[in-house]
């Protein structure tokens, strides 16, 4: 993967509560399931195997539409160490418009009054289409994605107050 984006936040939850919340892919990637400008008015739906994306080797498949085009991606969980770290990556050939292959993950750390969260994505622009022709689109999309994930966690648990820090 040639590019990297990450975002961080401190939330008012234990690492255990935060990990349990984020370990549900429908919560972690809720921004993909709602129509938005970044999704071209489309959205993605999930298809889980028996592991529901909560075990190493478990598959998470997403399909949907963006900008009127059909999308599909198959992800596999490669690391899962509750309550600290989870990593997943694309397998096969993703049918995406902006970003191609990627590896994503999150890490929690205990802090006074809550937990620190870092979400990252290592990625390549899509091998064809707008993501290849205008690589800045892939950067903007990756930034949007990780910022949405940490923002959703902050909304779910609240930020750590300045006095807790």
How does this structure look, described?
It is a single chain. The protein is of the alpha+beta class and 165 residues long. It has a single domain (3-160), classed as Alpha-D-Glucose-1,6-Bisphosphate, Chain A, domain 4 (2-Layer Sandwich). It is 26% helix and 44% strand. It has 5 helices and 7 strands, in the order E-H-H-H-E-E-E-E-E-E-H-H. It has helices spanning 15-22, 25-28, 30-33, 130-133, 135-157, and strands at 3-11, 43-48, 59-66, 69-81, 85-95, 99-111, 114-125. The chain has a 7-stranded antiparallel β-sheet with strand order 1-7-6-5-4-3-2, covered by helices on one side. Strand 4 and strand 5 form a beta hairpin. The radius of gyration is 16 Å and the shape is globular. The model has no long low-confidence stretch (mean pLDDT 88). This is Polyketide cyclase / dehydrase and lipid transport. InterPro entries: Polyketide_cyclase/dehydratase, START-like_dom_sf.
Question: In short, what is this structure?
Answer:
The protein has 5 helices and 7 strands; from the N terminus they run βαααββββββαα.
Essential attributes:
165 residues; alpha+beta; Alpha-D-Glucose-1,6-Bisphosphate, Chain A, domain 4; 5 helices; 7 strands
The total of helices stands at 5
**Residue ranges: pLDDT <50 for 5 or more in a row?**
none
Number of domains: 1
Outline: globular
**The CATH topology, please?**
Alpha-D-Glucose-1,6-Bisphosphate, Chain A, domain 4
CATH architecture heading: 2-Layer Sandwich
Major sheet strand order = 1-7-6-5-4-3-2
The radius of gyration is 16 Å
- Binned, the helix content reads 25-40%
What is the first-to-last residue Cα distance? Answer: 35 Å
CATH class: Alpha Beta
Strand content: 35-45%
**Secondary structure tally: strands:** 7
Fourth CATH level, the homologous superfamily: START domain
Instruction: Give the structural class.
Output: alpha+beta
Average per-residue pLDDT, rounded, comes to 88
Give helix and strand order, one letter per element, not per position. Answer: EHHHEEEEEEHH
The main sheet comes to: 7 strands, antiparallel
InterPro entries: Polyketide_cyclase/dehydratase, START-like_dom_sf
Pfam families: Polyketide_cyc2 (PF10604)
Protein name: Polyketide cyclase / dehydrase and lipid transport
């Amino acid at each position: 993967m040639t590019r990297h984006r990450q975002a961080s936040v401190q939330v008012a939850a234990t690492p255990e509560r935060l990990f349990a919340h984020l370990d549900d892919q429908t919560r972690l990637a809720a921004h993909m399931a709602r129509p938005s400008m970044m999704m071209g008015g489309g959205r993605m739906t999930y298809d889980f195997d028996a592991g529901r994306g909560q075990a190493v080797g478990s598959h998470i498949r997403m399909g949907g539409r963006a900008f009127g085009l059909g999308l599909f991606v198959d992800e596999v969980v490669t690391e899962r160490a509750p309550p600290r770290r989870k990593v997943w990556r694309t397998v096969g050939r993703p049918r995406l418009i902006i970003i191609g292959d990627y590896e994503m993950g999150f890490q929690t750390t205990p802090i006074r009054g809550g937990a620190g969260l870092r979400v990252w994505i290592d990625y390549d622009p899509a091998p064809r289409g707008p993501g290849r022709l205008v690589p800045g689109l892939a950067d903007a999309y990756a930034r949007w994605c990780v910022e949405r994930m940490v923002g959703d966690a902050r909304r779910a648990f609240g930020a750590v107050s300045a006095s807790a820090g």
